[in-house]
Amino acid sequence: MHETILVTGAMGTVGREVVKQLSILDDIRVRAGVHSTIKGENLKRLPDVEIVEIHNTNQTSLHPAFTHVDRVFLVTPFTKDQVEMAKTLIDEAKDKGVRHIVKLSALGAEAESGTLLGRWHREVEQYIEQSGIAYTFLRPSSFMQNFENYNVAFIKGEGKFYEATGEGKISYIDVRDVAAVAVEVLTNLGHDGKIYELTGPEAISNYEAAAILSEVTGKEISFVDISEEQAKQAMLEHQTPEWMADAMLELHSLCRKGQASKTTNTVEELVGHKPHTFYQFVKDHVQSFI
User: Fold this and answer.
1) Is the whole-model pTM more than 0.85?
2) Which domains, and CATH codes, for the chain?
């Protein structure tokens, strides 16, 4: 029997990988939710993927995307109104009889005095819990792919990358492993009501990350620890909204204090293989950094 799985935020770092991994499975219809079908053209190259437009703030516009959907992988963009967006999507899922929501959350979302982003994620989690829809929450650590998304220009241009994380260790996870867990949870039974904390196999500092980048690429790459003030100024100069800059600095502060180093065995327990190391990630993406 075929099931239809909707992936919201399908053009994002995680959503795109989930769509890719789901698309190769039998008996699964994948519906990729994108803000613009034009931007979603690349996803059409994947087998059996239907592209639908999703406008997160307008529930009426969501009807086609959610009609006859069995499960939803819920991803919302990093925006100031992401909580309201998520609630709109959840309301539509409930109205359309969706049976299971798998939400991409964040490690530490349960902390009452945690970061702004953590509190936002927890608010959405609680809204899902109260909806009556079966749920699973995935709480990953920082993504290895952020080195490609945010640092690669500096790495290629200057042989350096800059963050306000000091010597703090971070349990970076490869998005491929997050997606593998998402696919397991979306396509198999036994995950209702579960919360899974997902990390890579080790915690490393950005100094160690720089050493690995140098070894694999064969060129000298260094990490430059900067102050929070310098980091905020740089973000503001690149047109980052101030609320977003402050939210990012909260995360950097946790890293600096060594509070982002927790590792778990959850990926291996759920998908049967160890998560990618940072070394393997860089090796697989080396062309991005040279």
Assistant:
1) yes
2) 3-140 (3.40.50.720), 146-170+201-261+276-288 (3.90.25.10)
